[in-house]
């Protein structure tokens, strides 16, 4: 097959429909390799790291929280700690839009002043909402010196469109964040060093002032690894699928051209010659036939009409 014939066979690839399809497939493959797969694989790595931290904390003995406040370790989430001090009076803060056993609930926060004078934020646990909407009466934490055992948790951050509010005489927020809690309670709360956002204490079961403690997450990796591998597979399969369709199209055109005896995959429309009838596209009688008829009429004495 000549070079010109090959170019003609590949000419259909330059049509707008094929160009658009190629751009879509290339963009999809790019997103799979650079965004979608790394997103799921990153979540898998984060989940594995969290599970390892929880497993390590179960085996390790709790440390005094002041050691974390004075240290430089920024990977302290899930670590078990102890805190000695007392609850700050009138420091109750509720967190909306929580769930307890599948029903609406509130998380109850409070400030806890350590023996060295610093104040940390404590998550006392969950309480069920009344009629699914209102918080119940919140009992004050026990007064006097207390010794707490808790886990370090990382602040959740503050939603941009959710502002603190006061309802039924109770201060309420939409997330657990040490910086926001310090502003709402007007207290100098010290964040526990974690991964940059600062941490708080989440009470364990049986501790002074605890409600229903937040359970530990399940220690499984989840589906993130399989999702990431699937996106990688999709990124590989999409260009291969496009290549297969191109090959199938070329093979079909080659069969058609072989059947018609043409080597052009895009034959031009037939052009009506000048001496053809424009309406019926039927060739007019050749001039040579008309001349022969006239000669025969003259030879045998016929009359031309």
From TrEMBL:
<dbReference type="Pfam" id="PF02104">
    <property type="entry name" value="SURF1"/>
</dbReference>
<keyword id="KW-1003">Cell membrane</keyword>
<protein>
    <recommendedName>
        <fullName>SURF1-like protein</fullName>
    </recommendedName>
</protein>
<feature type="region of interest" description="Disordered">
    <location>
        <begin position="256"/>
        <end position="305"/>
    </location>
</feature>
<feature type="transmembrane region" description="Helical">
    <location>
        <begin position="12"/>
        <end position="39"/>
    </location>
</feature>
<dbReference type="GO" id="GO:0005886">
    <property type="term" value="C:plasma membrane"/>
</dbReference>
<keyword id="KW-0812">Transmembrane</keyword>
<feature type="transmembrane region" description="Helical">
    <location>
        <begin position="224"/>
        <end position="247"/>
    </location>
</feature>
<keyword id="KW-0472">Membrane</keyword>
<feature type="compositionally biased region" description="Low complexity">
    <location>
        <begin position="279"/>
        <end position="294"/>
    </location>
</feature>
<dbReference type="InterPro" id="IPR002994">
    <property type="entry name" value="Surf1/Shy1"/>
</dbReference>
<comment type="similarity">
    <text>Belongs to the SURF1 family.</text>
</comment>
<keyword id="KW-1133">Transmembrane helix</keyword>
